[in-house]
Design brief:
Strand order of the largest sheet of chain A: 1-3-2
Strand content of chain A: 15-25%
Structural class of chain A: alpha+beta
Largest sheet of chain A: 3 strands, antiparallel
Oligomer: homodimer
Distance between the termini of chain A: 24 Å
Radius of gyration of chain A: 15 Å
Chain lengths: 111, 111
DNA sequence: TATATATTTCGATTAATGTTGAAATATGGA
DNA sequence: TCCATATTTCAACATTAATCGAAATATATA
């Protein structure tokens, strides 16, 4: 992941509505949620939500797929993990052994 | 970490100059760097850098301490790790075992 | 085809953010 | 004390982001 990509991804999550949307999608898992369900759950106007979903999509953090007349959004775990990897890279300068380990988000390949 | 804190921390890093500053401080380690050295290294105007350092400080991502006529800034690894923990929390819904592990940043307690 | 539902785009408005020169503040050394 | 260096604050400006009603687009069903 490049610096610019990281900035875009961080900016996408650096907003209360979008962070809430993203976390809801993380909980929902690979099946995802329709735009309408997200709008209801978070009480956000459809046009506003659409704007934020596009931001998350532009950042590569979510993926959209058509399902009938609904559009289902799901979290892009691979991108999420790439960002976390970027943020932790170059940390510790080799003394990584002493650092506390943490779990990343589930990759889609096992869902 | 609360939602609001996460948004503030993410917003602090969601800017090219600030992300560069923060990463430089992560590499520099607990000793930190003076504002002037950072300004030189990144070719940023002093006033601009001061503005960004204040943002990072407000987000709890860096700490400042006076050293003679210099002000030394260092990364706040604890806050960094809290943010990563927040972003990975509620991920996977219990299936954490299958997730790829990643190292967090070195906590200050062993530096 | 016509109608209803779901989502996005558009336009306008408001608010927040990033940048920098110049002035103010703080510290160290002559 | 006086001067030089380091950093921050201030003020002004330009840019970007967030919100939402209304209109446009897409899909499903009668």
């Amino acid at each position: 992941m490049e610096m610019k990509d990281a900035v875009v991804a961080l900016a996408a999550m650096a907003q209360e509505t979008r962070l809430a949307v993203f976390r809801a999608l993380v909980v929902a898992g690979p099946e995802g949620l329709s735009a309408g369900r997200i709008a209801d759950a978070l009480a956000v106007a459809p046009a506003t939500l659409s704007f934020h979903l596009k931001e998350l999509d532009r950042a590569g953090l979510v993926t959209a797929r058509q399902d009938g007349r609904y559009v289902l959004y799901s979290a892009n775990f691979a991108q999420m993990n790439a960002l976390l990897g970027f943020l932790t890279a170059n940390c510790c300068r080799g003394a990584v052994d002493d650092c506390a380990p943490a779990a990343l988000c589930c990759p889609p390949d096992h869902a």
